Amino acid sequence: MKTDRQLIEPLKKVTLQISAGKRPAGVELMDPEPVEFIFGLGRTGLTPLERQIEGKTVGHCTSLEVYRSFVPEFFGHIFPFPMKLKIPLDPFYLNMKVISVDPADPREVVSSMAEIAACSGCDCGCGGHF
Predict the structure, then answer these.
(1) Which of 116, 8, 123, 10 is nearest to 54 (CA)?
(2) pTM of the predicted model as reported, rounded to 2 decimal places
(3) Which end of the chain is more exposed for a tag (fewer CB within 10 A), N or C?
(4) How far is CA 88 from CA 21, 34, 67, 91, in A?
(5) Per-residue pLDDT at 108 exceeds 70
(6) What whole-number distance in Å separates Cα of residue 118 and Cα of residue 116?
(7) What pLDDT score does 124 carry?
């Protein structure tokens, strides 16, 4: 039985395992790597990544065909992960598995919001990190 605690919704700390391949569920282009973020904190609403996992639970897996030019928009403020995504194939398959969904500590929420707001307005989605 699913519990609300495991449901991806605003202000939940989500950990995804992300890999990339030439085919769905493939890992030829990038080995699985964890990505952790607070869901739903973007300045302009949910990112395409967040829309793909909204309402999902731990264990959910998905593969999406993605064009390299769409990577910054897809991840949005969930940076610097795309900087690590140096994949030569275009398009490629981005494979995601929900590893954990937990309530975010208020300090984590405030810290994440401060990082997102720190961007100098370059519209790059970097959150002020680069």
Answers:
(1) 8
(2) 0.81
(3) N
(4) 11, 21, 10, 9
(5) yes
(6) 6
(7) 53
Instruction: Identify whether the C-beta of residue 98 lies closer than 8 Å to the C-beta of residue 34.
Output: no
Nearest-Å Rg of the Cα atoms of the chain is: 14
- The single-letter DSSP state of residue 127 is T
pLDDT digits (tens, 9 = 90+) for 20-65: 999 998 888 888 989 999 999 888 889 999 999 999 999 999 999 9
CA angle 54, 120, 74 (to 5 degrees): 25
Determine the Cα–Cα distance for residues 119 and 103; give it in Å rounded to an integer: 26
3-state secondary structure of 114: helix
Return the higher-pLDDT residue of 95 and 88. Answer: 95
101 and 58 Cβ atoms separated by less than 8 Å: yes
**Mean pLDDT value of segment 96-103:** 96
- Please, are residues 71 and 105 in contact by the beta-carbon 8 Å criterion? no
Q: Is the pLDDT of residue 101 over 90?
A: yes
